[in-house]
């Protein structure tokens, strides 16, 4: 009896000493598949693509969206979206779900203690009774016990726990990525409404201009100065302008609907932009930093967490080759009478250690091979995430490097076309040119003004895009993010 107790105590001590071990391979972060510097060339602004290693990267991670977006109306709209957006709520609930899955997996490290009260009664016939007489036997039990508690000598459960933890971290990063996407989408919808309003205003002016021209052409026709075809052409242009105005009214309404969907609530009229030119510009963000900042993007971090989970699953698959040691134990009191259940001498205890050694199991081998393949898949997904992030930033940098030149050139073009329209109008009034020259000048002016509005919108949008693709837009600061990862003593940074 004493020897059994010593054996049991030794098993528990070994479980405590060895239980922290894992058979997962040592994790090494894959080398970045992209250059440390951003692309350079004629399409890129050298002031934005400076040498890597400058401190702007840390400044960017510290920059919250409330500090980046300076327009007060836009900030209020983003705040409403972060509170009410259903997609974001679902992402946050998913985080909570995976957190509880991690807690479930962690609980397997500890024995499940259950308590019970029971009563049983049995009547034995005389021919089956040991005494040769009929007998009724009653039994009352009260016990505490642990059934099939696996002693994690080889780290199988701890590897599964680590995999669940990394899945939780990946979901956490996915939630942050969803938040960034929502912030960016609200800002873009805000810009779409402002640009649509500008285009609606331009079309109203165009309709008024075409109607004024139509009235002049009609008067000239009544005087016999122009032909009927000029009247018909002028009338058709009024119809075309009215159709264009209706199209932009439609786009404005659809943009408002998109914003309302993102907000998850009706859009307050007082928070709508009045015009594109009246918007407060976003805070300037420099991209003169190393491409290593991409490793801090939520989607890249999520891909690395998935890789870490796959690495931990290899440890669990390896541990399956080794024996599993489990323990069933119970302590309680039993009596044939309820009144004697807790009397002296009624106590009992039992324990039953068990060792299961895998001898032939094809599933174990297949599971190990599958876990190794899964890790290679996650490495590929991690590298692809970095490459996609690098391309996103490079594309935005190419836009930022050329957009100012495009806007300046378009402004000059609009000024030139406006002058052409004024001259064409003068020549038509002076009966030097026909109506076709005036019509062509009106079309060119309207088209150039609309193009200018779109370019100005793209300039605003590219500033937002740079902030987004570099991983900005978090609600929390990096210190607060680190505090949120205090769920366990093991973090991805420590595994690296």
Description:
The protein has helices at about 1-20, 55-60, 65-70, 70-85, 85-105, 155-220, 230-265, 300-320, 360-430, 435-470, 480-485, 490-495, and strands at about 115-125, 135-150, 325-335, 345-355. About 30% of the residues are buried. It is an alpha+beta fold and about 500 residues long. It folds into two domains: about 20-110 and about 155-320 and about 365-495, Outer membrane efflux proteins (OEP) (Up-down Bundle), CATH 1.20.1600; about 110-150 and about 325-355, Outer membrane efflux proteins (OEP) (Single Sheet). The model is unreliable at about 50-60 and about 475-495 (pLDDT under 50). Strands 1-2-3-4 form a four-stranded antiparallel beta sheet. Helix 9 (about 360-430) packs antiparallel against helix 10 (about 435-470).
Query: Helix coverage percent of residues?
Result: 55-70%
Q: Summarize the helix and strand pattern as letters.
A: HHHHHEEHHHEEHHHH
The CATH superfamily of the largest domain is identified as: Outer membrane efflux proteins (OEP)
Number-wise, the strands total 4
Mean of pLDDT: 83
- Unreliable sequence segments: 50-58, 476-496
CATH topology name of the largest domain: Outer membrane efflux proteins (OEP)
For the record, the CATH architecture of the largest domain stands as: Up-down Bundle
Strand order in the largest sheet: 1-2-3-4
Integer tally of domains:
2
